[in-house]
Amino acid sequence: MEFDSIYNTYWQKIYRVCCGYLGDPDxxxxxxxxxxxxxWNNLGNFRNEASISTWIYRIAVNNCLRQLERSKRLPxxxxxxxxxxxxxxPIDGKIAxxxxxxxxxxxxxxxxxxxxxxxxxxxxxxxxxxxxxANVRVRIHxxxxxxxxKFKRYDGD
Length: 157
What we know:
Blueprint: H1 3-22, H2 25-42, H3 52-73, H4 93-103, H5 107-117, H6 122-129, H7 133-156
């Protein structure tokens, strides 16, 4: 598969996963770009042991985790601030609320639900995250319950 085709197929999906995971559109764009730099640099080493999408999502997840870990070690003034008003694309209020709710989840739950929202198969999510498929199903069910409860309160306000 050629890089241009991979990039065109996966850019938006990887960006949305990073955005859901990191909660900051600019930071997500940087991490997504880093992901595709890694894909470009390592495409020749791809061994087809998993699907190309699993491999790319795994790179994105690892980049997100590294960035989050790095941000915990930096002084607070150097950590990218959460953007709420000056985003490149306006985001619907409910979508913004959804991303805010996702941002409150545990790290593993954020990545699981972000991948689920991208219609990634649960078996592939299990492979990307490194947990069993049964665990993915349970987590998705529990996450959806939490998000549904938060939306009931949101709609009630």
